[in-house]
Amino acid sequence: MRADSPPIALRAAATLRMADHIAAGHDTVLSLAERTGTDPDLLGRVLRFLACRGVFAEPRPGTYALTPLSLTLLEGHPSGLREWLDASGAGARMDAAVGDLLGALRSGEPSYPRLHGRPFYEDLALHSRGPAFDGLRHTHAESYVADLLAAYPWERVRRVVDVGGGTGVLVEALMRTHATLRTVLVDLPGAVATATARIAAAGFGNRYTPVTGSFFDPLPAGADVYTLVNVVHNWNDERASALLRRCADAGRRDSTFVIVERLADDADPRAITAMDLRMFLFLGGKERTAAQIREVASAAGMAHQSTIKTPSGLHLLVFRKKRFAARGHGRRMVT
User: Fold this and answer.
1) According to the model, what pLDDT value does residue 262 have?
2) Catalytic: 233?
3) Which of 22, 184, 192, 222 is the most buried (most CB within 10 A)?
């Protein structure tokens, strides 16, 4: 990426909260430079660069205004774009890992922990960057949760453990649509705190149990269904099987395990290959074909029962414990 490319200038503007300063009436180069502690001449050149590309408007020479595009850079915008572009935030650290692809190729190891000194999630939590990342996860989950509700017979389920459930989009939706269903959410402290506050505010706290901890520790036992939505792709094969083994150990003999992922053999190649590289560079994970997911699940003692494709392109791969899979529980729908 060239140093003069729009993303670099956008990141500078976002980090300096330029849109918020303009919205507050500091709309001249000199006023903005004073507010942000920057060089007026260079700041003017950066703003002209961005104005030429529609990020800001320049109604008069040296005076700037917001455009529909720069409105998304305001603090608190639902997109979370300003926080994501902030040079001190999670997005910048992730971008640095992407830029280290050559280092990953040479070492065979994920870039993020090598560059930043800690594993991905531990680093986000330590530097208080987790909320921005959780906000991105939340927005993404809202885009497909209706598909997950429609794809599976949740009306038959009494208790769900959502492993890596993030900010609780799925469990809240399940409780909202099924009046007797109870849920457990397992994730890291920041995500669990956000989920718990949201679910309590929605009035579902009496049917919800938060669990803070690692997915690789023993999981809550005895649920009807264990869900892992966009979780398995975070890990290499060994760790993915270890995680699924924890699920199998926690489940009853008739529990069901639902892995939700995009499949590498049934997705837009441009999108899935880009995500595949990101998963490795951040976490050492990978995008998998249906056969590869079945393989890591089999190593954890699970037998595949069905695969359900949703309109959003996600697939629900349904498993049971191998010892009990042949007894005919559940429905088999293979696509």
Assistant:
1) 95
2) yes
3) 22
